[in-house]
Amino acid sequence: MISLNNIQLMRGTLTLLDDVSLVLHKGHRTGIIGRNGSGKTSLFKALAGEISLEKGEISMSNSIRCSTMAQETPSSQRTAVDFVIDAHKVYRSIEEDMALAETSGDDNRLASLHSNMENIHGYDIKNQAEQLLSGLGFHTSQFDNLVGSFSGGWRVRLNLAAALMCPSDLLMLDEPTNHLDLEATVWLEQWLHRYQGTILLISHDRTFLDSVIDHVLSFEGRNLNAYTGNYSDYERLRGEKMALQQAMYEKQQRRRADVEDFVRRFRYKASKAKQAQSRLKELNRMQEIAPAHVDSPFRFRFPELKSLPPFPMQVESLTIGFDTPLVDAINLTVRGDTRIGLLGYNGSGKSTLLKVLSKQMKPLVGEILEANKLRVGYYAQHQVDELDQTTTPMKMFQKLALESGVPETGQETRNFLGGFAFQGSRVEERIEIFSGGEKARLALAKIVWQKPNLLLLDEPTNHLDLEMVHALTVALQAYEGALIVVSHDRHLLANTVDEFYSIHLGVFSEFKGDLHDYEKWLNQQAKLAAKSSSGFEEPVGVTKPKLDKKEQRQLAAAKREKLAPLKKMERSLESTIDRNQQALDKIEIKLAEETIYDEGNKMLLTELLQKQRQLKVELSEAEEKWLETHEQLAQI
């Protein structure tokens, strides 16, 4: 149990919490939420004893073992696996004592230490560390690489692995999914389900929060308000609370009308039955939770497009990579209404594909045909890093307007920036003093301002808080152009894309299921990997022989030949699934009619119910076969 007693927490001259008292109970899994800069990380630091309070006290039992995720990683000369094992202090201490006992020949002491090692399952420690690294996306060939050889994002993963390795009763994780892909996020989610202690979690990933937490602490006006349930429960409860405030009623109704309109438009446009149903459920939930976000400081929309080519881009026989091919035989028609989510393990080529499509990189082979009036909006982390740190938001957008030949008034620029919560004197401050989240918002604002008709987004939610992620999701729902997005945020994907494509083992192919199907597929892959002990990805650092263009075309042709019968089977199964789904829909419409339950229709009702059961069985079998076929395609 942790007790906060009349605490006051400040950052500089800014008061974050004032006279706050509450109790965090043992075994609770609590999500800490609030806007960027509200004080979430500062609260973590206060709980960990890293910073002091202005007033009050935090009471915590001395026996509680606490594990926190470090935000910085030194350029250590330790190997990755040793770095993770180092987090288990008791193991390292026993290991050191055993070495001394062996040197001194103290057999009695050595026997006692061996017993201690058995008690902490010490002889399985290295295997545990390797499992953590594998789950977070490291390949076995990387386990012995020095920590200093990894990039910043991979060092964050090492910090996370170390936090999970450390024996603890209280686990505090600050944005653990920020540098994870979807696959590693799902793995972490499952690991946390098995964790036996108390969890405090800061995250902007609402699907992750929904799965992991059972309580919420929300920063609201220098106070912490507690809610029971997961993040969706919090939104509902807060929405009910906000609905009581009459001043908010009109805003709620406008937002509800916006979402209802989008749901109506999508319902008649959707072409993929199963995925469409999944998406509509998400959209209807978005409608229900709208009141919880009516006081959000973020309110922006993508401008109406003057030009929207019916086919913005055509990709033909594309091979991407660096010195060697990473993915080949990519064929894709991007329509004006295309909305694609890219799936695949870290390093599979998702980000590389977006770089090629946005002309940040050149393809190795193949062709990209672009429409005459194509305007690409590309967002990735380096867009944030490349912002001119010496200028201000106001000057940056006035310069963009001048360069475009359509200068805007100062008030128009202020209004636009206000939608991204840059208001008042903030628009005149130098970008270099902004937080990571503020810079990410500014980079997104720049993309929106450019009025693209094809959006390419690579992890757009990194460094954004939950309110901004929600605002971005709503804006993307109403966006008129084509969209291709890479994201580990399943809520954003479920609410903004219509179809999925995966990259697996160098093969680019459509994934016909929804995100739930993809999670099932990931679990199957994890089981296969555990059996073969081959890891999740191709070995990093193992170079493929360089191939000339003729050899690449020959390999691509051979691969297409292998794929042909499976693709034929896949198309056949898709037809069966669509046919059965349509037949089921017709039966369910008839079953919804009141007259079908009249005495005179008893025989017809029996026939319909029997046919319904038969179709459901056939549909389930076809979906299972489709998943098996898709897996076989991915292995070629």
Task: Note down, in words, how this protein is organized.
- This protein has 636 residues and is α/β, with parallel strands linked by helices.
- Among the domains are: 1-65 and 168-244, Rossmann fold (3-Layer(aba) Sandwich); 385-450, no CATH class; 548-635.
- It contains 21 helices and 18 strands.
- The chain has helices at 40-47, 80-86, 89-104, 107-119, 125-135, 152-165, 182-194, 206-212, 231-243, 249-269, 273-289, 350-357, 381-385, 393-404, 410-418, 436-449, 466-478, 490-496, 515-532, 549-591, 602-635, and strands spanning 2-11, 14-24, 29-33, 55-60, 66-68, 170-174, 198-202, 215-219, 224-228, 313-321, 325-334, 339-343, 365-370, 376-379, 454-458, 482-486, 499-504, 507-511.
- The strands form 4 sheets. The protein has a 6-stranded mixed sheet, with helices on both faces. Strands 14-15-16-12-17-18 form a 6-stranded mixed sheet, with helices on both faces. It has a 3-stranded antiparallel sheet with strand order 2-1-4, covered by helices on one side.
- α3 runs antiparallel to α4 and α10 packs antiparallel against α11.
- The chain starts with a strand and ends with a helix.
